[in-house]
């Protein structure tokens, strides 16, 4: 009799809620404790690797004077954005993904969402500006030093962070994402324990185009132009090699390798974030039927881009591998270590 009553009580209680005492609480999906532990370990490993990898990139570019170039300044700023994703965005997102509820308060939810959007847009704008940098380096090498100077790269960085911060914080704190559909949101979507970015059809279309579509079109178009010019240059380089112009060959090889590496970084970025942006775009037109779990999976796939970039540098750049060895062996604390030559002459 007691067992039956206990079972009946559990059935009558209904779904598990994020806040049992709240009438407007979200429902909570409870993972088995073993799965929770594995998820926490997995997400923690991603966050820690992201922070450590990008920290090495930041230290290397700041410490070694040979790396103080306009291209590397953009790379440094991109690494800062990736580090913030690993150190600030991923831990609360991990808690939300594993617990399936948000327990960190409404204000921090807005800050976290704003920073998440800001860093995503910042990365997109950096990718676009890096493509411009590579365009001048490959297509107009004689004008490169006069057009892409350290002050110009700092302007690009400032624009990337400034515009991204304005859009990210304005969208969340001014509730631009629900403008025109507030009644539906507060009646059918909003609940205590949720921390999501709900967007109307108009908001998702505009934000997806401006934050993803337009930068993607610009970057891809520029890299296609670079590819065409590079093909023409390869024939010219071969001709120059026969005529003994070795310096010209070396410079073009160096720029070509940097362009290839940064193009791969751009490709990895767009591939990793495309699923999330696609779901974000079509969900309002499907009456918001895409499950939250799908969004969560695609969100973490997007986060993985921040982890991948240091590995791309390590795979393609010998200077990064050399800098990594110096940093790990604590040789950066030796006198004049910032003056070390990291470049391979025959790379």
Automatic annotation (TrEMBL):
Compartments where found: Cell membrane
Presence of keyword Nucleus: no
Membrane-protein topology: Multi-pass membrane protein
Residues annotated as domain G-protein coupled receptors family 1 profile: 53-313
Keyword Glycoprotein appears in the UniProt entry: yes
InterPro entries named in the record: GPCR_Rhodpsn, GPCR_Rhodpsn_7TM, TAAR, TAAR_fam
A GO cellular component annotation in the UniProt record: plasma membrane
Entry keywords, A to Z: Cell membrane, Disulfide bond, G-protein coupled receptor, Glycoprotein, Membrane, Receptor, Transducer, Transmembrane, Transmembrane helix
Taxonomy, superkingdom: Eukaryota
PROSITE patterns for this protein: G_PROTEIN_RECEP_F1_1, G_PROTEIN_RECEP_F1_2
Transmembrane segments: 37-61, 73-91, 111-132, 152-176, 196-224, 261-278, 298-320
Pfam annotation, one family: 7tm_1
Family membership noted in the UniProt record: Belongs to the G-protein coupled receptor 1 family.
Listed name of the protein: Trace amine-associated receptor 1
Lineage: Eukaryota, Metazoa, Chordata, Craniata, Vertebrata
């Amino acid at each position: 009799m007691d067992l039956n009553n206990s079972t009946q009580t559990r059935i009558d209680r209904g779904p598990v809620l994020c806040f049992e005492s709240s009438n407007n609480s979200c429902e909570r999906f409870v993972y088995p404790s073993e799965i929770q532990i594995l998820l926490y370990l997995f997400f923690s490993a991603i966050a820690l690797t992201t922070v450590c990898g990008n920290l090495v990139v930041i230290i290397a570019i700041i410490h070694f004077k040979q790396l103080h170039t306009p291209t590397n300044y953009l790379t440094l700023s991109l690494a800062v954005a990736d580090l913030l994703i690993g150190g600030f965005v991923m831990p609360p997102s991990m808690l939300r993904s594993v617990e399936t509820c948000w327990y960190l308060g409404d204000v921090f939810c807005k800050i976290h969402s704003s920073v998440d959007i800001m860093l995503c847009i910042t990365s997109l704008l950096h990718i676009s500006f890096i493509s411009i940098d590579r365009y001048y380096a490959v297509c107009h090498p004689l004008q490169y030093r006069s057009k892409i100077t350290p002050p110009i790269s700092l302007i690009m960085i400032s624009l990337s962070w400034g515009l991204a911060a304005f859009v990210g914080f304005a969208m969340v704190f001014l509730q631009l994402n629900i403008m025109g559909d507030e009644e539906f949101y507060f009646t059918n979507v909003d609940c205590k324990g949720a921390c999501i970015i709900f967007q109307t059809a108009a908001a998702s279309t505009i934000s997806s185009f401006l934050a993803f579509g337009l930068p993607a079109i610009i970057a891809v178009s520029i890299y296609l132009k670079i590819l065409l010019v590079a093909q023409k240059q390869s024939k010219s380089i071969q001709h120059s090699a026969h005529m003994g112009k070795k310096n010209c060959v070396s410079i073009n090889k160096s720029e070509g390798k940097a362009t290839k590496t940064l193009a791969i970084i751009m490709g990895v970025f767009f591939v990793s974030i495309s699923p999330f942006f696609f779901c974000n775009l079509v969900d309002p037109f499907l009456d918001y039927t895409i499950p939250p779990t799908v969004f969560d999976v695609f969100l973490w796939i997007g986060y993985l881009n921040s982890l991948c970039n240091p590995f791309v540098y390590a795979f393609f750049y010998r200077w990064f591998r050399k800098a990594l060895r110096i940093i790990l062996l604590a040789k950066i604390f030796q006198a004049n270590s910032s003056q070390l030559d990291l470049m391979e002459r025959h790379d």
